[in-house]
Structures
1.
Amino acid sequence: MTGWLAVAGLGPGDAALVTPEVEAALAQATDIVGYAPYVARVPPRPGLTLHPSDNRVELDRAALALDMAARGARVVIVSSGDPGVFAMASALFETLKTRPGHDPDIRILPGITAMLAAAARLGAPLGHDFCAINLSDNLKPWDLVERRLRLAAQADFAMALYNPRSRARPQQFARALEILRDECGEKRLICFARAVTTPEESLSTLPLSEARPEMADMRTVVILGNSATCRVGRWVYTPRSALP
Ligand code: SAH
């Protein structure tokens, strides 16, 4: 039996947003590897072994998946959203780099990332140039987060902010809001999109002056508009043009 390894994005939550390509890989798999809440989104069936793991063990997970595929298993590593956005695809390649000469059958299967699902619910806040920043300092120094926030704000990018706030680092999002107010002014629109496309979904849009750190948690993606982002009715959008 020839093994293979797919790294699949399960999308933001709604089963209707899992791509047919990902569904087909899950249907053919013998083993599913991933962070426990994501593995729990894959329905169990005979012949399928689930390997849930804790957060922050990405490299162990990638090594397990590579070992199983080398032994002939059909392995899917699952991520939420897209596997290439702050997720498992990079961890897999980092692990592969430590195994010179190993060239397994790998496929990266894209998914709908949180910022795009959130933007669609809100309207079109990412309709002009934008960037995505992970606010977690688990894998990079906080100074770098601050520098990127400031420079992105100065370049007038709209921004999608992933991993905005966790119990382990409650102060940092408050600091991020201070920096954004300083660079963008109090009137800039900011959107909090929580648990998008799930039954717990909530959305709110307000000026930066009214944004509070408690409005975000680890299930929230925060979208900051650029200087032209505005509202029409209940929608938020960023014009396609930056011409005066
Ligand atoms: N690979 C994922 C991101 C993993 S980082 C993707 O492409 O979406 C985890 C962060 O993603 C969370 O802290 C949150 O900021 C965001 N996120 C994931 N799913 C979300 C959802 N359904 N609604 C809002 N934010 C979400």
Note: Residues 12-13, 79-82, 85-87, 113-114, 118, 162-163, 193-198, 218-221 surround S-adenosyl-L-homocysteine (CB under 6 Å).
2.
Amino acid sequence: MKKRLLVINGPNLDLLGIRERELYGVKTLEQIEEELRRMAESSDIELDFFQSNSESEIIEKIHKAYGRVNCIIINPAAFTHTSVAIRDALTAVKIPTIEVHLSNLYQREEFRHYSYIAPVAVGQITGFGHFSYVIAFYAARAIMDGII
Ligand code: DQA
């Protein structure tokens, strides 16, 4: 059966390409999605790529993934540093999750150094720009193939 991968993007990531390009790069979220779609197609993986500025919509999306999705890649954006609720949703559905960030959280303000999500994720990829998503895709594929 085809493996299912869900990629969740949090608030303000719809403004990639416009927003603080020196930190987040010039690619739009649509371009990142296209790149992942190409990779998913050639790996025979079904991809659901989602963005929301609303914490509740992200939580609903995680709930709906229960029993349907094999792996989650999430860039929770600012909710990384605030959301016990997103962490609890991920814990509840027990889907292996990879946390990604475009910027390197640990080179930035102290309030970005703590992630509520990292302790419940398989791992965190931070600081590689749009390539963080590519690295996360390979990690997700390895998880779904049972390699890691
Ligand atoms: C981000 C880092 C977060 O601290 C920030 O709030 C974002 C983007 C990143 O991808 O580097 O919105 O998640």
Note: The longest helix spans residues 29-42.
3.
Amino acid sequence: MAKLDIVTLPDPILRKISTSVERIDDEMRRLADDMLETMYDAPGVGLAAIQVGVPLRLVVVDVADAEEGPQPLVLFNPEIVRFGPETRLHEEGCLSIPDVRVDIERPSTLTLRYLDRDGKQREIDADGLLATAIQHEVNHLDGKLIIDFLSSLKRDIVVRKFKKLARTTTT
Ligand code: NI
């Protein structure tokens, strides 16, 4: 396994729409494993392929705490097929937007359809932090970021800060 570089704001690739994975082969499984290693190292609870510069619909998630031990989920072509009626408010961070946290209210339960690492179609019900993390990562596949939940004024402030940061770290 290898640790990958995480793309950060304001890299425009984060706004790309990712395309479906056509074939789940060893190369795809290796990418998923590398993404898991990158996510655990960061550390984070979820990572989308676009965040390592690959515009494919692949997400890895692990919301288990230290006592539970690792419970990695590898989700190819994830698709939310149903939302529950209740919502949940969570302060979300994003590995592509370091040190920024945004309060976001999202549905608290959902049903997710995806292909597992063997290409088998599965469906799971998710709630709590897992439901939040899945929605956050599926947003990434559609080029949507947590700052899009802010007012345009606040969003502009964050984007400007990251543009300035990018300039000062490259010179
Ligand atoms: Ni994120």
Note: The chain has a mean pLDDT of 96.
4.
Amino acid sequence: MTSSLLAHVEMAPKDPILGVTETYNADTNPKKVNLGVGVYYDDNGKVPLLQAIRTAELQMAETALPRNYLPIDGMPAYNKAVKEVIFGADSEAVKSNRIVTVQTLGGTGGLKIGADLAKRLYPESQAWISDPSWENHRALLEFAGFKVNAYPYYDAATHGLKFNDMLSCMDQMAPGSLVLLHACCHNPTGVDLSAAQWQEVIEMVKKKNLLPFLDMAYQGFSEGLNEDAHAVRAFTKACPAVLVSSSFSKSMSLYGERVGAFSVVTASAEEAARLLSQVKRVIRTNYSNPSTHGGMAVTKVLTTPELRTQWEQELTQMRERIKTMRRSLVEKIRSHRADFDFNYVANQRGMFSYSGLTKEHVTKLREEFSIYALDSGRICVAALNSTNIDYVSEAIAKVIVR
Ligand code: LMR
């Protein structure tokens, strides 16, 4: 055979998060634990099928709707209900129709639509992400054509924020820069800004005329649905242009259904109509239109009062279980290693903890205990349960000794 046009193609590296799951799946050790990917598991180590979703799906099966194409921007009822979850039903911006919300393929789909849109609107702009950020942010923005820079965020010495450095960096950004911010449950560190710090960031965004893009993949996993939307809502009140991506992968345990949204806050209903027309072009050229099943289930849960209440209760249970696991991990590690202060893990928010484990520790955990974490030291606390927590805390205590 003559040399192929594809002969030069190199093997790409494994994905830093989903690649860990691939290696974990191949591990035959019955004690293996996957603290890599951001997925919530219940105390039995299973991805839950929420009761609210199950009931919605049973109702959907009874009505068995045909599956025509959805509109490019998704189901109108979904978009309306989701907009209210994100921005609040009583928001002035919602009431005056100056927010566009479209159904996307998960939160990553929302980020991709937002990144492509921003690139079309501001081809010369550069993008900024936090240091560190979700492993996929940089690649996603680069694939959309941006030069990607990082602003200071996490302070490893204090397990807190480099807030002043973050603000000074923003003060140097060129007007029109795209600034990606984690609305809550910062991924990977679990360290969030306070309300007062958000206000300072908002002032800086306004002063420098930056384009904020808020990634809210974990709404409901820190303090509650409304509390976790604080940053998004504060930006919406203060800035005439805000991009938001959001997801139900975690909050409704619908990972495989790919149900998310992309929203644009604009200055007026007339501007929103123009933005929607551009967003639709971006969606049409990416994947044409979103899929039906997950979006229908979410809409049913959000718009049926009993299902909505049930979902919020189930979300609260998930959030509280994670917090219990955080405290338990800290106590158990302390019982092995009184000299090692792991207390910061209990104060971090959301599914993740930037554990402080080094790449070397992570390698030892994987090779000697079949415990999988990200090379950065990020662990998914939502994968701990009453069966594996002793094993994990003992293993961590052992690897940090050496
Ligand atoms: C994560 O950070 O692990 C999750 O957001 C899952 C993913 O797609 O990376």
Note: Residues 17, 37-38, 134, 136, 187, 217 surround (2S)-2-hydroxybutanedioic acid (CB under 6 Å).
